Amino acid sequence: MDRDTSEPRVVVGVDGSPSSYEALRWAVRYAGLVGATVDAVAVWELPGLHGWSAPAVDTDVDEEETRQQMRKELTDVLGADAAGSVRSHVVHGNAADVLLRAAEGAELLVVGSRGRGGFAAALLGSVSQHVSQHASCPVVIVRAQDQ
């Protein structure tokens, strides 16, 4: 990920969940207040790729299509003007690890309270819990409005 160190950066994890969309909105509002840029990071990982069994999914991921889908989601969530000011990144790897690396040197890391996976009754998702304990910058965990 390109890191421009001349201005503050806010990194936000986006996974298509309601809480990640709320985190995205929060990050953009905050960045506007402090004059920061926003890096929206979507992470993809193939389940089973590193386990004992063969992957249960098609390993032919179209990264360009994924990037286009993310730009569409950013526009749907933020509107065209605000989405145009957000730098989007689609990265392969473990979500928590990728977000921690992306947040190095950032002003703030913003994540949703629960993503697409996990147990619905969990107070925090595994990614938000992990990054809150290991990030090198402050972390804001945002809940979806209906939670």
Number of strands: 5
Number of helices: 5
Q: Low-confidence segments, ≥5 residues, pLDDT <50?
A: none
Q: How do the SSEs run, as a string of H and E? A: EHEHHEHEHE
Label the structural class: alpha/beta
Radius of gyration: 15 Å
Main sheet, how many strands, which sense, barrel? 5 strands, parallel
How large a portion of the residues is in β-strands, by DSSP E? 15-25%
In whole angstroms, how far apart are the ends?
Answer: 32 Å
Brief overview:
This protein is of the alpha/beta class.
Quick tags:
147 residues; alpha/beta; five-stranded parallel sheet; 5 helices; globular
Q: Could you walk me through the main structural features you see in this protein, from its secondary elements to its overall organization?
A:
By secondary structure, the protein is of the alpha/beta class. It is 37% helix and 20% strand. Strand 1, helix 1 and strand 2 form a beta-alpha-beta unit. The longest helix is centred in the first third of the chain and has 17 residues.
List the helices and strands and how they pair.
Blueprint: E1 9-13, H1 18-34, E2 37-44, H2 63-78, H3 80-84, E3 86-92, H4 95-102, E4 108-112, H5 126-134, E5 139-142
Parallel strand pairs: 1-2, 1-4, 2-3, 4-5
Helix pairs in contact: 4-5
